[in-house]
Write a structure and sequence with these properties.
Blueprint (H helix, E strand, L loop, with lengths): L1 H24 L5 E6 L3 E3 L4 E8 L1 E9 L3 E2 L3 E5 L2 E7 L4 E14 L5 E2 L2 E9 L25 E6 L14 E6 L5 E8 L5 E3 L2 E4 L3 E10 L5 E10 L6 E4 L2 E5 L12 E3 L2 E3 L2 E3 L2 E3 L4 E7 L5 E7 L2 E11 L2 E6 L11 E8 L2 E8 L7 E8 L4 E7 L4 E4 L7 H25 L2 H26 L1
Helix pairs in contact: 2-3
Length: 443
């Protein structure tokens, strides 16, 4: 009985082993593997499917449920192949690979394989085109510059140098000027200018406006006041010159101590002035060239031209040399230049006095004198009739002082009475000279 049980066990084991061996020999190692780069694709785009064959060879078919495939039939030989699939609609796209005529690579037995892979086909994402916002066209900004870059009256000077920010100017012209020309240019080329060109003027004041208009319409106005002198109506004779009596004092600088007072010249009563500081009657005249100046009037006639000056710190007036003083012995009449002013005077004929000059000058109190001008020392002093320098004067004073001391100490001890009298006479002469020189030094 035991033997019968053992036989059954052995028989069962044998059957089991036969089943195991049979299963091993029939294991199918062949396979197909499908892969894609992405499981999502946008409609309109394609995707690739990679087919990997393991231990299988032969022909397979490739199909898709949505769209088209680049190759519907492939030969595989234990290798990797690729096909391109193009979906035709959104949704699901399945690619299927099936055996048509394939065999096991090792046993050469026919095998049937099928493999599928699916991807999602997405619709395109569209970005809505923004609706353009209507805009109102912006007008270009116009220039607001309304200044001038230049302004002038041809042939005449403005009273001040032109500046674009200065809006008013004065111009003075001679009495015989009947027309003027105004020129101007804008700072901005887009601006316009009006009021320029030739202008007719009359005697007295003439007012003109030059307007500069910017591109945007803003304006700047520049004023030019042109004063045309009044023609003289009364004419006087001074030497060989004919002088006109000035009627227009608009641009004349009249000193504060001058008071208006009529004067009579050549039996004609005209506008005059009294200069209190120098106690002189003056008239303001112009020559034939239009040059104006002050003149002194006395005894119904013009006696001299007069011009205020400061020479080497001495305030006074340059005047004409009187006819009776023109000829000075040993001198020649000349125009002397001092402090950049020309003064009537004389030069010395002697070479030893080449550093000296004489001028005729009126001080600020009205005193008229001949002054000695020393070039080397640049000094000015009243001339006493002989030429002596400051150094010479100082040496002379020293000599006089020494002589006075010697006279007091040695008069009776050293000299006789006669000698003392002679020395005393000499001392009186020197003292007299010293007194005159001291007067010269005080000026």
């Amino acid at each position: 009985m035991i033997r019968a049980k053992l036989k059954k066990i052995v028989l069962g084991f044998a059957v089991a082993m036969s089943l195991i061996v049979g299963n091993v020999t029939t294991v199918d190692a062949t396979s197909l593997q499908l892969t894609v780069q992405s499981f999502n694709v946008t409609i309109g785009n394609s995707f690739k499917v990679t087919i990997k064959a393991t231990d299988v060879a032969g022909r397979v078919s490739v199909s898709t449920s949505n769209g088209s495939v680049s190759s519907s039939s492939l030969w595989i030989d234990n290798n990797t192949s690729t096909v391109t699939v193009t979906p035709s609609a959104t949704g699901k796209c399945t690619v299927t690979v099936k055996s048509v005529d394939t065999t096991d690579y090792n046993t050469e037995e026919p095998v049937t394989l099928t493999k599928s892979v699916s991807v999602n086909v997405l619709a395109k994402t569209t970005t809505p085109t923004p609706t353009p916002t209507p805009t109102t066209p912006t007008a270009p900004v116009k220039s607001s510059v309304s200044t001038l870059s230049s302004l002038s009256v041809v042939g005449h000077d403005l009273n001040v140098e032109f500046n674009s920010s200065t809006k008013e100017y004065n111009v003075s012209v001679a009495a015989d000027v009947e027309k003027i020309t105004i020129n101007a240019a804008p700072t901005d080329s887009k601006a316009s200018v009006s009021g320029t060109g030739e202008k007719t003027i009359s005697e007295g004041d003439n007012n003109f406006e030059v307007v500069c208009m910017a591109e945007n319409g803003s304006k700047s106005t520049y004023k030019i006041n042109v004063h045309r002198k009044l023609e003289p109506l009364v004419f006087l004779t001074y030497g060989t010159a004919t002088l006109g009596v000035v009627r227009d004092f608009k641009n004349v600088s009249i000193p504060d101590d001058y008071s208006e007072e009529p004067v009579t010249v050549s039996d004609q009563e005209i506008t005059g002035f009294y200069a209190k500081n120098i106690a002189r009657n003056l008239v303001y005249l112009e020559d034939e060239q239009g040059q104006e100046s002050w003149y002194v009037v006395a005894d119904n006639e013009i006696v001299t031209e007069i011009s205020a000056a400061t020479l080497l710190g001495l305030n006074g007036y340059i005047i004409t040399v009187p006819a009776e003083l023109i000829d000075i012995e040993g001198c020649t009449p000349a125009i002397i230049e001092i402090d950049d002013r020309e003064v009537p005077g004389w030069t010395f004929d002697e070479e030893q006095f080449s550093d000296y000059r004489l001028i005729y000058y009126m001080d600020e109190a009205g005193n008229e004198d001949i002054y000695q001008y020393e070039l080397s020392q640049n000094t000015l002093q009243i001339w006493e009739g002989s030429t002596i320098s400051n150094e010479q004067y100082s040496a002379m004073i020293s000599q006089v002082d020494n002589l006075e001391s010697s006279l007091q100490t040695y008069t009776y001890a050293t000299y006789g009475l006669g000698g003392a009298l002679g020395l005393g006479a000499l001392l009186m002469l020197i003292k007299s000279r010293k007194s005159r020189s001291l007067k010269k030094q005080s000026i």
